[in-house]
Each structure stands twice: as structure tokens, then as C-alpha cells.
Amino acid sequence: MSAPSFPSFTPSFSSFPDLPDPGPSKRTTSPDPAIVQRDHPDEAYQRNKIDRNNWRDRKVDKEKKSKREKHIPHIPETTRHSSSWVKDIVFHDERNKQDEDRRLAAQDHSQRSFFSDRKGDPLNITYGGIHAGDLPKYRPVNQGRYILGLVGNWSVSRKSGKGIEIVLGGNRKQLGLTDSGTRTLLNAPARRLTASASNHRYEEVNGFLPLPSRVGRVAGEVYGSLQDEADTDSESSEGQEDNSDEDEGPLALPSDQLAIKDLEQKIALQPSSVESWLSLVTRSLVTVPPTSKNASTVRAEITLSILDRALTAHPANRTSRRLRLIYLRAGEEVWYESKLQVEWEEALKLGGVEIWMEWLEWRIRKSTESIDSVVTDATRALQALGGSSDSEVDKLRVVWRVAVVFQEAGFYERATALFQAQAELTFEVPQSLYGLPIETQLEALEEFWESEAPRVGEVGAKGWSAWTSSGRPEMSAINDESIQMDIGAEPSTDPFSSWYNDEVRADRLLRAPTRSTTERAVSDPYSTVLFSDIRPLLLPLTTQRAKSIFRLMWLALLGLHIPGFSRSLAGDAWDRWSYTFFTSPACLSSIFPEGGFARQFLADSYSGILIGKEREYSSAFGPIKEWSLNVIEPLEWVGKDQWRMWTARNVEGVNQEFARAIFSQLRCGTEDHEWDIYALAFEAAASVKQALKLSRSFLSTARESLAHWAAHARLERLRGRIEDARKVYHTVLIAVRRPPTHGFVGQLWWDWAEMEWLSGDQELALRVVMRAGNVDGSGGVMVLRAKRNLEDIINASHERWKDREAWIKLRAVIELLAVSSPASALAIFDTQPASGSRTSAEQQESLTVASLLMLYDHSSTLRNPTPPAFLRDRLQVALEMYPSNTIILGMFLEAEKGYGLWGRVRSQMSQVNKDKDITRRVAEVWMAGWEKGRWEREIERTRAGLFAAAESERTKNSSTIWRIIMEFEIRAGQMQRAKDLLYRAVSECPLSKELYLLAFGPLRPVFKPHELHGFVEVMADRGLRMRRSLEEYTRNYREVRGSDDLRGDPEASDDEIERDARERRRLMPY
């Protein structure tokens, strides 16, 4: 165990102990230092003579002592090693030790120079180091071999970066857990010591014990026949082998090998078990860490060897899509392109949207041609999925994926045009075209598209149906507001940075397709989208579910993230490409701390006294928002800061006018309350006042819609008008009594009770809850009757599962209001039945979040006395069950804030090799800066987590995670490291334009001109969209700066390399 490390300091005389008076001395007292003069040569000679005499006297005393030791009688060797001699030594040592302890105990503690604490502080493990106020001070002496004031034989063994390591004796270093010898012992295979089957070590044979012996047999000595001698030798050898086995014991397999052995036995009994094969793959990959050398290739080979056995072990395994996808993903690391193509064609015969989506992902990763090749592959996938109504949602997944590829490659207008045309085909079909084949409808839609009339999302758009009914009028020229990129007016000092700024600015603002008659269409032909560019991707949508999903997909494409939406459609792998909002400038600035990586000092000094600073934290509910769909509705919020799905920061980079037009034009009647609630949530993010105006317009045409009344009351609460919200609840619930199982009745009752409860009026809240249970009055009997009525309502059937959850919360909150018992309230949630279906899993997560929020409001918001561990323990369990739920994560951080136990938060971030999704990885980056001033200490842990994400099979091809990695290194100041990672990023995500542009913007200081020209050539080869040619910027730059400066010229790279070579030769050999 290594010794603790101590920081060096400037010693003072107050740190030395008070020593007793040494008594009279033979030396004379020193004169006053103020009148000391330089020594005279005679005085120096006399002092040196006295020193030589003292040395001669000490030498004579030493010789006399050695002569006395010669007269000590010699102790024989046998006597010295006898037991009596050892016992006598031990007795005297123990006695001397006891005498020494008594003398030390009798001394005054104030006279001791130090105290010995051999137990150690257990909080050192929690905080990762010794407390700053408890660090011992030291000063090295004698060339750093010893420590001043450290008595005994302690000496310095080794110096490290954080301090020193001391050992006793100075000859042998104490072993620590990081030493090579200790690691060898820890890595050695374990041995299990088992008891022998017999009671005796040696079995009796023919009346004697055949003890094994290594002494050879004497020549001529005969004990029997040759057969007997051979038998005896064999028995002796067997005994010797048994002896060695019993001494060493059988080797015990480690836990991972035992698990693999058990899985092999299960597979032998049931070779068609897909779960067993996948568990075997997982267990086998544990032996190869992702951070080791050539880890990807080795792990892929291990996976292939196991899955080859699985595919041939049983015929049913060959039809398993899960096994086939993992098999193909592993083969992508080691197979040639031809073999991989053959294997994919074989897998596509199985069919299914999972196979086709993964095949499309593979084609996108390997795309080296133009973006049209992606459209061709997507068209093939759409045709293979069939034309039934059940496959409409699956086809929408393909269309959404292609639209995201359009945006990543820079074709924002094409992505917008695709969704505009699909919206016209879905919601604005003319009456005369109903029921006709899709080809006929597409031909008519092409005529509307070529007329360049206003489309969905644009100002003045009335739709395809209105244009047809009005006689197909000719449209006048539309004023297109564009960004003027004047590259010659005020040239920048660097043409590459100027080109980067214009490209980024245009990509963020120019996303709607323009018309062919505008000026921008002349300079940028890709800004105009022809109908033939998007026609193969248009779908006939007939079901209401597909139409609703299409609208939510468009919101996500605009940058309005809906938590849990992508996971409700498919598995968790969708977050690799669908979470594009993480890369927006507003989200990136909120993920990373504003102060950068500056370290905060934890103490200040006032008049020589250290005063600790109060730890500062940001809000525990951060910018990352993810949970299952409808766990928290769009107009619900958490905490006093009203943290909800969309806030002002979430809509900062969204074209708000375009989004408002989409909400207005895609509304399906007055009963489309779900879409209206999303529209109100969007308006409330920008302005609650404007959201209330929009809500009143909805209520003017839907007076009987309880969903709209519930949304309006929440907006009143959000604005702080509690009295107006109370009037809404009283009018809707009391004036007109509705059945408790009616839609949105339970939600309205709970919203009213929650408002009164969080306002601090518990008596009024209790009356509201009892009135919800159809009980009037007060007292214990009335409370019991209200509980029984609420339980009957819970057990009844409801139109919406959120209404049943609202009644459960009403039943639980009455325990807090009546008897103030958090345990009884949580027991109401715990006793609710759970199922294993997807919908029931979402409901169970919603119930878990509801119970935790109720306990959080009771203890943290309302400050009611509650045991702290009561909430923290439940939060930790819930976080393990739902690791990507940021509501639970926020409450977990808030519960840890008051106690400063960073170890609990660190344990959530230390699981770097665990397979995590994009949300959890990005949330951990934000968590590192949750405590202000802690970025510098958490930078390596954060980098390890991001590196694990880059190595994970799930996230390594995600442009979102690579953008986060690059932003992290840039903000950390590691430009060279970021440059090296950028080459790998563009290799993993070849169609992400944003990654290429980083070389021209934040990483411009570490890139040379010829490297940037190489990036532009690669972008052109891969078909990425560039709005302006870089040559225009470099040409203007040369005209302004003159022909002598050739940084923008491609030939300047050769001159720069030659100059560097000449400078290196001049400086040699230095």
C-alpha cells in the first residue's frame, strides 16, 4: 500500500515541537548577532582544532566499546535457534514495547511532535483524495532522502507527481496495488482449496503407509519381484501426484469463464436459443476491452466465430434478424467489400424493416458517390416494404432517414421540399383525386409543384386543393429573402475562415426551397428543388396514425425535439441519427459550461484565515431532455424553474414563422387537441402571453373540449395567474359534473389539486381531492370514504391511461395531505400492477416518474421534513432502470446537491465501457460541468466516456456523437488532438458536412492551406453541397493582398513545405 502524498510548503519555526531544556552545555553562548564580525584566521584555526579533538575523543570511545563486546560469551548456534532462546527474545521485546507505551502515555500530548493514525479516513475513497485541510506538511532534507521532523528509520522511497512515498528502513519499497508484482498476483488464476475425500492423507497399503520419497533406491537391495517393484513405484508416484494436487488444490475458473461454461451447457441443450447465443457473445467480448490495441478487429473476429456456430447450430437461427444483423456488423470490420455485399443480399431475403433500415445505414456509411445513390437505395427499400397500410409507418422511417441525410450533406432545401410535397399529398389532396392510383395523384401534384405556388409552411399557402379548385392560376414572382454573401466587399484576413462563416450562416438560415425566378436560384442551382428529385420518396398515407407520425417527424426535422418519439417507433438505435438538435449552436453552448475549463478555488484567505467558499451548482435539470413518450406532456413542468419539454433555448435556432405556419396548416379540425397542445407548447416557449391568445382562439371553436380547457388552465398557471386557473377548474369541473372515467376529467382534477398543494394551501388541496372523490365534508371518516371512492375509480376502465395515472396520484397525495406519510403515498404507486408490453412499459415508467416527482415536491419544493435517504435510494434504483430518463437524473442531482457526495454522481459517469445511448453520453458531458469550477478535474473522465462512445458499435457512426467529441476537444484547447480526431470523424460519417467545415472554422490554426484544399476536394468527390466555390474567396484574397502572398494558391503548399524543410536543415542538429 503506497503512502499518502503531501504537498510541499515553506516551513516555519512554529511547526517544530517544543523540546525540553537540554541542560548546561560546555559550549559558550553565541554573541549577539547584531555585533558579530567576520572570524579572524586565528579564531577559525582554534575552532577547527577543538572540532578535531572532539572527533578524536569519539573515536577512542568507539574502540573501547568494541573491545567490551569481544568479552561477551559466544552463544552456540544450536542454542541460539532453540525455542527457549526465541521465547526469551520475544518476551524481552514485548516487555520493552510495553514500557515504551507506558512512557509515551505518561507524556503530555502537547509535547508530542505528531500523532499516528493507522486506520485511515474512509472518506478518502469517496472524494478520491485527502482533504485539503488535513494534508500534513513536510520539508525534504539530505538531498531529498529524509523528511525533516520524521523520526525513526523512515526515508523517502519514491517521488511522484502528487507527492512522495516513504518506507520504513529505506531498503525495501512497500508494495502497492499498482506495482507490477501485485498486479501479477492479482492476475494469477484463483485456486480453490478443497477437502480430501478421505480422513487420512496417505492410505494404508499392506500394513504400512507408502510415503513418497525422492531418495533413490540402494543398488542390490531387492524387495520383491519386478512386478511388485513396478507396482510399488506406481503407487508411490500416484501418492506423490495426489500430494501435489492436495497441496496446490484444483484451479477454480474465474466468474466470467464459469458464466461462459454455463452458457455453453445451455446452448448444448437448446441450440435455438437466440438469447443464449447473444449472452455468449457479450460474455466473450468482456475479455477484450474496447480501449485495447486492435480491439475492433479482435472483437469482430470473436463475434464472427461465435455467430458462425450459432447460424449452423440450428435452422431457426438462420432466420433470426438479430443474429444476422450482429453478424453483418462484425463482418464489416474484417470482410472484403465483395463478401460483405453477398452477405447483405442473403440477409435481405429475410425481409423486415429492421433489416432494410440497417442495410440503408450501411449504404449511407459506405457512400462515396453523390447523394442520388442514397435516394436510389431508399427507393429500393420502400419498394421492398410493400404497399399495405401496416407498412406506412415503416416507410416513413425510411423517408425520415433520407431527409436527415439531405440535411447532413447540406441539401436543406431538398429535405424541406420532400416534407412539403408529402404534406400536400397527405392533407391537401383535391376532391376529384380521391381514390385514384398514386401515380395519377403524383402527376397532378407535379403540375401544382411546377406552378411554384406557395406550399405548406410558406406565407400565403392555401394548399394544393385550394389551388385546384380556384382554376390553377398562374402565380406571380415570390419575394425570396436571401442572405447576401458579398465576398468581395470587405475581404477577410483569411479566405478559408470567410468561406466557412458564409457557408455556416447560409446553412442555418436558407433552408426553404426557392423558386426558379429568384436571384438565389441563379447563383445556387441546388436552392431550387425539382419534383423529379423527390418523387421516388413520396408515399400514400391513409391511416390516421401514419399522418400523426408524419407531422411529428417534421417537427423533429425542424429541430423541435419530442422526447421519446423516435423510441416509440423503433428501438434505441434511432438516436444515432435522429437527435440532430444536439448539434445546434444553442444546444452546444448549453451542454458545455460558459466559463470553459477554469478551475474554481475552494478557499479564500481573509486576514490570514482560510474561509471555504460555498459550492456553486447550475440547475440540476439541464438542457438534455429525454423520457418515454407522454411521460410528461408538452405543457407539464418540473420544479420552480418550470423546466419542461420546450423552452426559449430549445426554439432559439428554429425558423419560428415557418413552424407556426406548419402548426396552422396541418391542423385537422377543431378536435385535433394533440396537435393543438404541441402548438401551444411551441408558442409558450417563445411567449406565454401569445400562447394564451392562441388558446383562446382554439376554445372559441371547441367550447366542450376538456383537453383544450386543461391546456388553457396550465398556461394560466405557467404565467403565474393562480386565481384565473382556479376559475377555469371550478367552471369545468364543478359547474358541469362529468363521469370520472370521461376523458381528461382525471387530469383536470389532478392539475387543480396539484396547483393548490404546491401553492402551500394543504387544507384547500385536501378539499379538492375529497371533492374529486365525490365526498363533501371533513374528518377522518370522510377521508376514508374518499380513499375508497378513489380506489374504485382507479379500478374502472378509462379512455386514456394518463387519466388513470391522474387518479392514482390523487389517491397518493391524500396520504401526504391527511397524515403526511410519504411511505404510504409511495405504497399506492408500488401496488399498481405492471405488464410486459411496450405500452405498459411506458406506463410503468410514467408511474415511477410520477411517484418520484410527488416525493421530490413534498421534500424539496415544499420543504417538508423527510429522511434524505428515502428519496435518494429510490432515485438510484430508478436511474438504474431508466438510465436515459433525464427527469430522474435531474432529481438525482438535486438530491445529491445538498450533501456534496460527488462519489454518487461520479459512479454514474465512471461506467465508460457500458453500452449507452446518445442521450446518456451527452448528459454525462453536461454533468461534468454541473458543479461550477469542476470541469478541469473531470476532463479526463469525460474524455474517456466520449472515447468509449466513439468505440461503441452503437454510436461510433453517429455524426452527433462525433460533433460532441470535436466540440469537447476544441473547448478544452486540444487543437492538435481535435485535428487527429477529425480525420477519423469524416471517415466514420462521410456525408456530414458540418464535420468537414470544422477544419475551416475552429480548427483553422492547425490546418495548412494544402490540407484545407484537400478537404474541399474530398467534399466534392463525396457529393456534399457547397454553396460557394472556395476559389472565389481565394482569388479575391490574392487580388487584395497581392501576388506575393500565396496562402490561398494551391501551389503555395509546395513552397510552404520547402520553407519548413530549409528551416529544419538550418536548425540541425538542435
Please describe the topology of this protein:
Blueprint: H1 41-70, H2 77-80, H3 83-106, H4 123-127, E1 140-141, E2 146-147, E3 154-159, E4 164-168, H5 180-187, H6 226-248, H7 255-269, H8 274-285, H9 295-313, H10 321-334, H11 337-348, H12 353-365, H13 372-384, H14 392-408, H15 412-427, H16 438-450, H17 464-469, H18 495-509, H19 519-523, H20 531-534, H21 544-558, H22 565-569, H23 575-578, H24 585-591, E5 603-606, E6 609-612, H25 656-665, H26 673-686, H27 688-701, H28 706-719, H29 722-735, H30 745-758, H31 762-772, H32 780-795, H33 801-818, H34 822-830, H35 838-861, H36 868-881, H37 886-897, H38 902-909, H39 918-928, H40 935-951, H41 959-971, H42 975-988, H43 993-997, H44 1009-1021, H45 1030-1041, H46 1052-1067
Antiparallel strand pairs: 1-2, 3-4, 5-6
Helix pairs in contact: 7-8, 8-9, 9-10, 10-11, 12-13, 12-14, 13-14, 14-15, 14-21, 18-45, 26-27, 26-28, 27-28, 28-29, 28-30, 29-30, 30-31, 30-33, 31-32, 31-33, 32-33, 33-34, 33-35, 34-35, 35-36, 35-37, 36-37, 39-40, 40-41, 41-42
What attributes does this structure have?
1070 residues, two-stranded antiparallel ribbon, mainly alpha, 2% strand
